[in-house]
Specification:
Elements (H helix, E strand, L loop, with lengths): L3 E3 H4 L24 E3 L7 H7 L4 E9 L11 E11 L1 H6 L24 H22 L6 E5 L5 E11 L2 E11 L1 H6 L5 E8 H6 L1
Antiparallel strand pairs: 1-2, 3-4, 4-8, 5-6, 6-7, 7-8
Amino acid sequence: MNPIVTTKQNFDDLLFTKDHPGRRPTDTYYVNEELVLRTHTSAHQSEALASKESDGYILSADVYRRDEIDPTHYPVFHQMEGIRLFSKKDLTNLKLPQHVMEELSKEGDNPVQSVHDIGDVDLVSRHLRIELEGLMKHLFHQDLQIRWIKAYFPFTSPSWEMEIYYNNEWLEVLGCGVIEQEILKNAGVDKVGWAFGIGLERIAMV
């Protein structure tokens, strides 16, 4: 996929507000007023969803941000994005082991979307976190220490970041959450789903 995308793909389709810091020229490489170098693989999310070719996909690509260079940041890096969609029937049949989750709430700093049933969100959220914990433990080792931090992203709610314990400190490796239903509706998808994005350079460090 072309790394040059429209501001609509990179921001508007993902519900970034007009004053979001990510839109600033200090954060994003602009080609012109309407085109940017993608800052995340999510710039292709709506296109993939609208294709309706699958209930899930993984996309890996180079992304570009005006980051200062330090041990965990670089202006060009690779990201992997994943999405999984569920119909109401899928959720009815979904059997998951119990998993530690904080109480989901319609209030506060990590809200359940008002259009969602809190029971459905619990299932989708547990599926998301079980899958991602399994992935990290498969990549590294079964005793890997993992913790979840509440987060905010324009395109998911509730949202979390995953941190793993590495070199005697916690390292953030991915962000994830329940996809905003408005994004799915705009893509013509009548399902609920989760999404995650992993900075592959962070994984490579470990």
